[in-house]
Amino acid sequence: MYKKIITILFLFIGLYTTTVSAQQESSIEILNADQISFNQKEHEDRQKLYGNILVQHAKQFLSCDSAYFYSSENKLEAFSDIKIWQGDTLTLTGDYLIYYGDHQLAQMEGDVHLEHKDLDLRGEQLSYNFNYEQAFYDQRAIITQEDKSLTSDRGVYHASQEKFDFYGHVIINTSKETIEADTVYYWYYKEYAVFQGNGYIVNDDLDIYAQQGWIDQIKGEAFLSNQVHIKERDNNYHLFADSTYFTNHMQEALSYSNTYCMFPFEDDTLLLVADTLRNEQIASNNLLKAYYNVSYKSDAIIGSCDSLTYLPEEEMLVMNVDPTMWLEDYQLTSDTLSLFFKENNLHRASLNNHSFIVSQVDSNAFNQISGKNMEAYFAKNELSNIEVKGNGESIYFVQDESKRSLKGVNKIICSNMNIRLLNKAIESIHFYKEPDAKLYPIDKIQLNDFILKGFIWREMDVILEKIEAL
Domains in the chain and their CATH numbers? Predict the structure, then answer.
């Protein structure tokens, strides 16, 4: 079917060219043949040529073992050891050929080999229009050029532009990366590709998927859109977006619109959502920056902030501007909040400036710990120990054994303290200096009086709704 379509197409192109450029018309000239025969009974317009055949038409020459020449149609049918050449830059060989002189169209079949400058194309079928300097193949072909290998089910080669239009299971292998897609338009000297449909780009660091985009392999730039999925192979995280722009030899990327990232940890996965995600390569370290309206969630933690930086090599995640993190019943806030991972598990959280940890006891009562800085430690992703460093204060409500009613509230002021937790509840508090501590009976106080400076309680449901909307 494709062969019929392209034959009609090239005949039309050739006819159009002949009409507008009549001076290019010429007859096929037989320069040599060991034997020529003609039998009008067999065919009223067919000459049979045998042995050492040499033919010229326009700027191209043709040689073969045997041929039929149809003079009234200005057409040649050639067999075996066929070679067409144009100067020293283009050569086409194969086993069977029909050449339409009026349209300068060659249709070659069987072990086809096209050479143009340093490009080499091999396949089983190819049509070449010398007027338009275009080749078409509708059976899978392999093209090589310098360090490149290119294959597709169908294609059009624009020789004057040194460009290919590839269709169907396209694969381009170069020293820089591999490109695959349903359709690719490729300028091979410029190493520039535009792709559509199920596009894959694979290099030493990344596995990339997108429905469409372009890549400049020389500049190391690319733009991807529609269902973008990037896997960073060394650190095994996955990034998703509507659009991504790569620069700096594919080492930096800016992703935006419906962006999110997945970080696999042991028995857990951290999902991060933001307006924009930026990958940067600094020295040998790969950084991921997220901004604005950042939210994240795993089985162990849920949180939000305005901006975030992830350093895979250091296994560190730094949150800036109103960071909030929930760990089961505990809400952590500070000016800057950093998470440290160890062997793919949450190991430590560092809270810097205006640090605050809150847990809700009932609708009006909150256990609170505040301080200048804090270090929170984790065991199996559960909060186990909190160190308060500077300006430490604590409010802790005492409940009866049934935990159904409040008995009193402890208010403690101590610059530095260490709080140990067991089964998500405070087990003990160690004070490094003499504390100012007092227990107040619950019926003698107003709950509103037991709110530490800097207290804030944020609703976790808003963050969950944003993440679960993906």
Answer: 1-121 (2.60.450.10), 323-470 (2.60.450)
Distance separating alpha carbons of residues 79 and 63, to the nearest angstrom? 10
Surface-to-core class of residue 324, CB atoms within 10 Å of its CB (0-12 exposed, 13-18 middle, 19+ buried)? buried
Residues 6+ apart with CB under 8 A from 440: 408, 409, 410, 411, 450
d(CA 71, CA 62) in angstroms, rounded, equals 16
What string of DSSP letters covers 175-229? Answer: SS-EEEEEEEEEETTTTEEEEEEEEEEE-SSEEEEEEEEEEETTTTEEEEEEEEE
Q: State how far the alpha carbon of 49 is from the alpha carbons of 63, 66, 81, 110, in Å.
A: 11, 5, 14, 20
DSSP conformation class of 300 = S
Q: Which has the closest alpha carbon to 155: 119, 121, 131?
A: 121
Rounded to 5°, angle at Cα 318 from 340 and 293: 130
Whether the link from the prior residue into 245 is cis, omega within 30° of 0, is no
Q: What is the mean pLDDT of each run of 10 residues along the chain (470 residues)?
A: 45 42 69 92 88 96 97 96 96 98 97 97 98 97 96 97 97 96 97 97 95 97 97 89 96 94 85 93 78 90 92 90 90 95 86 94 90 91 88 90 82 91 80 88 88 89 73
Cα–Cα distance for residue pair 89/80, rounded to 1 Å: 22
Q: Quote the CA–CA distance of 215 and 179 in Å, as a whole number.
A: 9
Q: Is the Cβ–Cβ distance between 165 and 135 less than 8 Å?
A: no
Dihedral of the alpha carbons of 252, 258, 259, 263, in degrees to the nearest 10: -150
| pTM (predicted TM-score) | 0.84
**C-alpha pair distances (Å), 69 with each of 45, 102, 125, 145, 179:** 8, 13, 21, 35, 44
